[in-house]
Design brief:
Length: 107
């Protein structure tokens, strides 16, 4: 059951950008999914950056930031791998993040 839930959640995360999320629409927010490890310095730097985005009046209404800790949460780690598979890439570390329909690794 957990495996099915993880796959469904991965598909939902992966296909979310296709369902109307557009930077061009003024009030629509871009989904920003962050897969991170608790205690990872690069992940902390990315979170510091996203915290600044959320405080900046020019950017605060542009993003929905969703965090998934993967070192202590196996379901989130599986989800990260599934999202990587959707993008046809092997995720080898954190931070791994998806903004809209683009993925990034490292910070």
């Amino acid at each position: 059951m957990k495996k099915i839930l993880s796959v469904l959640l991965a598909l939902l995360v992966a296909f979310m950008p296709l369902f109307g999320v557009s930077a061009k629409e003024e009030k629509e927010k871009i989904n920003f999914y962050i897969f991170y490890g608790d205690g990872c310095g690069y992940c902390a730097a990315l979170h510091s950056y996203t915290d600044q985005l959320q405080k900046d009046k020019n950017y605060k209404d542009m993003f929905n930031i969703v965090d998934y800790e993967v070192w202590k949460n196996q379901e989130n780690a599986t989800l990260m791998s599934n999202v990587g598979a959707y993008f046809k890439t092997e995720v080898t570390g954190v931070p791994f993040y998806v903004i809209g329909d683009q993925y990034f690794s490292g910070f």
